[in-house]
């Protein structure tokens, strides 16, 4: 591998970063991890040898580059063998017979010798300043022949600095002062290295106890690369090992684990919020351990750290401040206790509640092993989403690993073994030679301090505040006008609020979202509509909020948070706790009365600006004032900041509450004051659960939806809700709580305290400057409107509301198509035209349909794009024929169950006739279809889908297909599972799904055998074993970071990747998911194509996309963004007769497409010819476009984003959109056609 490769890679990566396509913080990894320890505390050569062997045995949990040698990273943490290093010191001419030898393992810039000298100077000067005696530097022996070309191209110089620390730092091995002092020295070194801008400099370890050997090689290469590890004198009491599987293929040596204290298999989903709150903890962070030198260790989390590295940074801080390794783990990654507190000892409950009071949990899949030279620990996250198993031998060897048998040990030696339970840990105190099992270590920690006495100072608010609500006296005229100002409609009250109040559940819809993106809409859209929910896929699972409720929680803490390095009763003094962040009007009123003067209410409304005033000035001035007032109050000791828009009136305009929250929260964080107060919100905007989630994600502590409560009171009073007001309000709160749990669970987060302030959304169409200022860390790839645009929309809405002669609410049209309201991609005339075209075989009518679609006002990003010619136009006869183009088409996954048997069968027959493919969906397939029909038609789905419920999946099912599709996520509801209502589970459906008729069938949000990228690799391997001919496709949903996930999927040996857009269809989904989760396929597809190209993986994978594809123009744009195959789902249903009445979830489809009702099924009139005509028409339109562009085949334009350009629409809010994230291209080579054959897997794993 030449330096040219490295230079090209870095140039292309920088290009993608500037275009906001690639974000290094979106990288993910998963791993094999474990430890070996001598429980009696003796040093042994066997510990090192067993750890090396165990590391080699988890090679399948790592990944390898195309060169066959460059791994994703592997490493070991061991004791510093004093005898070994005293020999190395002797070679420098010094003697260290009785002195402790401390060692720094350092990565230095290999090719920049001036930078090397500068780095050594910094290290030496800080060690000397601290009073250390330096023996000298040692070049670590390595064998570069065993590593790959990419690893060699990026390899640092690896050296050890050997020194003698002052004797005052250590009295014995267990004295923590030595490691604390060296921690401070290392942090000083790191800060100076950052100031000096030394590339490639990294301190792997600087310690008198432990040393880290790691790098970008395969697990089996570690002792070959580092011959030190083969030396018989290299002995240790304990060893951590780690093998990494990363979505990133660029070999960065410092990212290999172990870090300074831990090795981690998993993903911290809450890392953004954790980092934000850690910045605030730093302000109050004081410890006698550090004294005046506390500033030397700040910032605790180093800029650019991965989630694992950030966790290691905080872990190390707690340990150096005096916490033990087991206590640090329990503080940061606690057990879920609240739902079973009555089943555990009182001391345990008090201890867990204390941990919850001190720190926000670092939540997400985590198998952790840790070692500080005394304590060795292994533990899991609260969900147990990464496995750890252990074995204890007769001679005192503890082996912990990701799988059984990773550490070779005869069965006769094993006296105890087991699996570590979710949230729990095991530990060994090596100095005392004692092993603690799960119960013993928690019991030791829980009884170390009087946590129960300390918690008596905390106040549970629910009983104090939850008084019986009474219907308020309401000015209905003002209520309706305020509702108008905030964009409410009769439709929203009926379709969203009513189901919540009546049933305590969110409203359900179907058929996907065909309305414009918020930034493209002509109608007023609340700010919350510009935020898209984040969700987990592949690299970590979403949580099931219904069946895993034990680990979920909305418990909310109020008021000042204390010093995290202290341990005492002050940390819970006057701390208030509420079971949910949703507060009624009475609860908020009572709370504010209770705190008295310890509050500041900030008015979040502003006067209408004068005519001619600079756009955005009034709103911007208000935001500045809110920040200033909040800061002043908190500095004066106020602990409750209340943001309220209750003053909105005819003369006062409400600012977007999400903007106010983000501005104040972010400002207080930057000032180091956020942990000194609670941020309470009284908002009229809150109605649906998505808005609550965005506000909490932006930083709100608790929310009072005051206007919605008033609306419920009026609906109950008028009889529109046949419920008592108290009941309706209780149901509404229950629905919001359930919705919040569902939204945070999509992101793999279990507790609201770790979600708060994390900005776990992607902004779509908001100014990047605005996002960076008020929602830092949030991705905003399509930069759009800012304060001026938001202010303009508020003014327009306010004028319409207060100037209207009557205050009636508009009918609406956001959820269902209504004349004169929000635009929809599917209108009655379009549907009619298309159906006439396919029924009559009339291409001219189809062209009318396509013209209407292609020229309508913008709904999706692609509507802002136009083509550049490849060259002069060519005759249509020279363009590849319709048959070749149709073979690239699929009808996307729609199950037999969601669809009627008739509709499902027609799709299959049609696609098989033209050599295209249909996807079975997750409901299985009737075995009768495996045999051709008497007519010669084939009704079998050539692509069989596997979803999380595994319904209908058998060996026979998997062997009757050309391709197997693993559905990781669905575009219309990513992060959620599926549900087929019991009334759709007929005898036939039950037989196919191996279920009971009439019983609702639920697919959980995660695949319970895919918790990480290597688990997906295992499933792909298994499927290729059971069907040796089938290709394997993995279905992902477009989101920021999907490119890095796709890189991991490619390394897992998938053959195809499907990128689904947010507006794909579905048989049933909560409306908040339909409307607010996932991203357009244009963004996801472009990112995946470019990231795969960057990492040299594009030529081994086929890309596919779906989600609202309707015309040949859509197909051509998808091709230019990188897709080689195209899914057409909803449109195929329309061709068969679907009228888009959006009743799929109710079993009442009037045309028999999406129902199991026999009477309605009898109305189905679709035929294979209708679907064939549709596919042929689309293909013919593709041919015409290709001819105009000067291309003779789709292959010529695949990946050619340079042939797309942004077009002017004559509207500022559209023309100012930055579409660079879609239009960037880094690889000028043609895309290799990988649609035939498959990526083979090794004979065994």
UniProtKB/TrEMBL annotation:
CDD domains: GltS (cd00713), GltS_FMN (cd02808). GO terms for biological process: ammonia assimilation cycle; glutamate biosynthetic process. InterPro entries: Aldolase_TIM (IPR013785), ET-N_metabolism_enzyme (IPR050711), GATase_2_dom (IPR017932), Glu_synth_centr_N (IPR006982), Glu_synthdom (IPR002932), Ntn_hydrolases_N (IPR029055). Its cofactor is [3Fe-4S] cluster; FMN. GO terms for molecular function: 3 iron, 4 sulfur cluster binding; glutamate synthase (NADPH) activity; metal ion binding. Pathway: Amino-acid biosynthesis; L-glutamate biosynthesis via GLT pathway; L-glutamate from 2-oxoglutarate and L-glutamine (NADP(+) route): step 1/1. It is an enzyme of class 1 (oxidoreductase). SUPFAM superfamilies: FMN-linked oxidoreductases (SSF51395), N-terminal nucleophile aminohydrolases (Ntn hydrolases) (SSF56235). Residues 918-939 are annotated as: Disordered. It comes from the Bacteria. Residues 31-431 form the Glutamine amidotransferase type-2 domain. Its EC number is 1.4.1.13. Keywords: 3Fe-4S, Amino-acid biosynthesis, Flavoprotein, FMN, Glutamate biosynthesis, Glutamine amidotransferase, Iron, Iron-sulfur, Metal-binding, Oxidoreductase. It catalyses: 2 L-glutamate + NADP(+) = L-glutamine + 2-oxoglutarate + NADPH + H(+). Belongs to the glutamate synthase family. This is Glutamate synthase [NADPH] large chain. It comes from Hellea balneolensis. The gene is gltB.
């Amino acid at each position: 591998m030449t330096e040219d490769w490295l230079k090209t890679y870095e140039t292309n990566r920088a290009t993608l970063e500037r275009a906001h396509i690639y974000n290094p913080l979106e990288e993910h990894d998963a791993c094999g991890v474990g430890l070996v320890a001598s429980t009696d505390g003796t040093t042994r050569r066997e510990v090192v040898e067993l750890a090396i062997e165990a590391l080699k045995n988890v090679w399948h949990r790592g990944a390898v580059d195309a060169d066959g040698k460059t791994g994703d990273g592997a490493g070991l943490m061991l004791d510093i063998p004093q005898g070994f290093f005293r020999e190395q010191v002797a070679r420098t001419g010094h003697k260290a017979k009785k002195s402790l030898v401390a060692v720094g393992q350092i990565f230095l810039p290999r090719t920049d010798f001036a930078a090397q000298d500068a780095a050594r100077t910094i290290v030496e000067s800080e060690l000397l300043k601290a009073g250390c005696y330096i023996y000298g530097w040692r070049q670590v022996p390595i064998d570069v022949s065993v590593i790959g070309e990419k690893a060699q191209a990026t390899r640092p110089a690896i050296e050890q600095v050997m020194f003698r620390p002052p004797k005052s730092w250590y009295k014995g091995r267990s004295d923590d002062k030595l490691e604390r002092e060296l921690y401070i020295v290392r942090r000083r070194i790191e800060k100076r290295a950052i100031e000096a801008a030394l590339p490639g400099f990294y301190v792997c370890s600087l310690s008198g106890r432990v040393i880290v050997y790691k790098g970008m090689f395969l697990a089996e290469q570690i002792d070959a690369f580092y011959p030190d590890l083969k030396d018989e004198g290299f002995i240790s009491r304990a060893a951590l090992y780690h093998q990494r599987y990363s979505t990133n293929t660029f070999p960065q040596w410092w990212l290999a684990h172990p870090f300074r204290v831990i090795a981690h298999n998993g993903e911290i989903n809450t890392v953004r919020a954790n980092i934000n709150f850690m910045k605030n903890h730093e302000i109050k962070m004081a410890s006698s351990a550090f004294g005046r030198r506390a500033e030397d260790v700040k910032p605790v989390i180093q800029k650019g750290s991965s989630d694992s590295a950030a966790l290691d940074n905080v872990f190390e801080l707690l340990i150096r401040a005096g916490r033990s390794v087991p206590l640090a783990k329990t503080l940061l990654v606690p057990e879920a206790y609240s739902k079973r507190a009555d089943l555990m000892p009182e001391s345990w409950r008090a201890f867990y509640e204390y941990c919850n009071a001190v720190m926000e949990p670092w939540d997400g899949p985590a198998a952790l092993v840790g070692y500080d030279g005394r304590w060795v620990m292994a533990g899991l996250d609260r969900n147990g989403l990464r496995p750890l198993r252990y074995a204890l031998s007769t001679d005192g060897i503890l082996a912990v690993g990701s799988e059984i048998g990773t550490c070779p040990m005869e069965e006769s030696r094993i006296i105890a073994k087991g699996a570590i339970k979710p949230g729990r840990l095991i530990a060994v105190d090596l100095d005392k030679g004692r092993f603690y099992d799960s119960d013993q270590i928690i019991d030791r920690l829980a009884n170390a301090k009087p946590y129960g006495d300390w918690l008596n100072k905390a106040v549970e608010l629910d009983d104090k505040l939850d008084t019986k609500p009474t219907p308020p006296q309401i000015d209905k005229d003002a209520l309706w006008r305020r509702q108008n100002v905030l964009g409410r409609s009769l439709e929203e009250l009926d379709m969203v609020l009513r189901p919540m109040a009546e049933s305590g559940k969110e409203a359900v819809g179907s058929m996907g979202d065909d309305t414009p993106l918020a930034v493209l809409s002509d109608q007023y859209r609340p700010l919350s509509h510009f935020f898209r929910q984040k969700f987990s896929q592949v690299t970590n699972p979403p949580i099931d909020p219904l069946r895993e409720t034990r680990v979920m929680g909305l418990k909310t803490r109020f008021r000042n948070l204390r010093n995290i390095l202290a341990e005492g009763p002050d940390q819970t003094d006057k701390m208030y706790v509420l079971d949910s962040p949703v507060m009624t009007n009475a609860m908020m009123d009572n709370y504010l009365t209770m705190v008295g003067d310890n509050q500041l209410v900030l008015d979040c409304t502003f006067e209408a600006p004068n005519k001619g005033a600079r756009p955005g000035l009034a709103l911007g001035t208000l935001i500045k004032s809110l920040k200033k007032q909040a800061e002043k109050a908190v500095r004066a000791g106020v602990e409750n900041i209340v943001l309220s828009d209750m003053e909105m009136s005819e003369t006062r305009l409400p600012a977007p509450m999400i903007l106010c929250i983000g501005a104040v929260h972010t400002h207080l964080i930057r000032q180091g004051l956020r942990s000194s107060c609670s941020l309470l919100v009284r908002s009229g905007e809150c109605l649906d659960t998505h808005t609550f989630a965005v506000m909490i994600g932006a930083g709100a502590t608790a929310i009072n939806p005051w206007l919605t409560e008033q609306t419920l009171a009026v609906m109950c009073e008028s009889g529109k809700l046949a419920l008592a007001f108290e009941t309706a309000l209780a149901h509404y709160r229950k629905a919001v709580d359930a919705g919040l749990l569902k939204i945070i669970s999509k992101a793999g987060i279990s507790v609201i305290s770790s979600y708060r302030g994390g900005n776990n959304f992607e902004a779509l169409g908001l100014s990047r400057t605005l996002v960076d200022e008020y929602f830092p860390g949030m991705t905003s790839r399509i930069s759009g409107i800012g304060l001026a645009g938001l202010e303009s929309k508020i003014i327009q809405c306010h004028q319409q509301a207060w100037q209207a002669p009557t205050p009636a609410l508009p009918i609406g049209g956001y959820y269902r198509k209504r004349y004169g309201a929000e635009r929809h991609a599917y209108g009655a005339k379009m549907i009619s035209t298309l159906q006439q075209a396919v029924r009559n075989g009339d291409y001219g009518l189809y062209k009318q349909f396509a013209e209407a679609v292609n020229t309508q006002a913008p709904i999706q990003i692609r509507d802002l794009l136009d083509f550049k010619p490849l060259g002069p136009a060519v005759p249509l006869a020279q363009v590849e024929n319709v048959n070749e183009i149709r073979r690239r088409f699929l009808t996307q996954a729609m199950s037999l169950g969601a669809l009627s048997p008739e509709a499902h069968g027609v799709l299959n027959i049609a696609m098989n006739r033209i050599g295209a493919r249909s996807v079975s969906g997750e409901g299985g397939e009737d075995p009768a279809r495996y045999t051709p029909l008497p007519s010669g038609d084939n009704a079998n789905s050539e692509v069989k889908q596997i979803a999380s419920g595994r319904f209908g999946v058998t060996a026979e099912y998997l062997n009757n297909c050309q391709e197997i599709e693993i559905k990781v996520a669905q575009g219309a509801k990513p992060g959620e599972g599926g549900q087929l209502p019991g009334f759709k589970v007929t005898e036939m459906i039950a037989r196919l799904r191996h279920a009971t008729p009439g019983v609702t069938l639920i697919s959980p949000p995660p695949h319970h055998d895919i918790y990480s990228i290597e688990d997906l690799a295992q499933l792909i391997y298994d499927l290729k074993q059971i069907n040796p001919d089938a290709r394997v496709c993995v279905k992902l949903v477009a989101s920021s970071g999907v490119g890095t996930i796709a890189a991991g999927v490619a390394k897992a040996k998938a053959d195809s990747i499907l990128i689904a857009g947010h507006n794909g269809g579905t048989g049933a989904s909560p409306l908040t998911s339909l409307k607010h989760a996932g991203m357009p396929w244009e963004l996801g597809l472009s990112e995946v194509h470019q990231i795969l190209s960057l990492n040299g993986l594009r030529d081994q994978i086929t890309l596919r996309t779906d989600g609202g594809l309707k015309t040949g123009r859509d197909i051509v744009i998808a091709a230019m963004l990188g897709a080689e195959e195209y899914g057409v789902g909803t449109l195929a249903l329309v061709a068969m007769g679907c009228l888009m009445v959006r009743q799929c979830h109710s079993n009442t489809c009037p045309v028999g497409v999406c129902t199991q009702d026999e009477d309605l099924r009898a109305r189905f009139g679709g035929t294979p010819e209708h679907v064939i005509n549709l596919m042929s028409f689309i293909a013919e339109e593709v041919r015409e476009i290709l001819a105009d562009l000067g291309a003779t085949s789709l292959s010529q334009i695949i990946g050619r984003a340079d042939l797309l350009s942004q077009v002017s629409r004559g509207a500022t809010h559209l023309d100012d959109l930055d579409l660079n994230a879609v239009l960037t291209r880094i690889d000028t080579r043609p895309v290799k056609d990988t649609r035939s054959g498959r990526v083979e897997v090794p004979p065994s794993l």
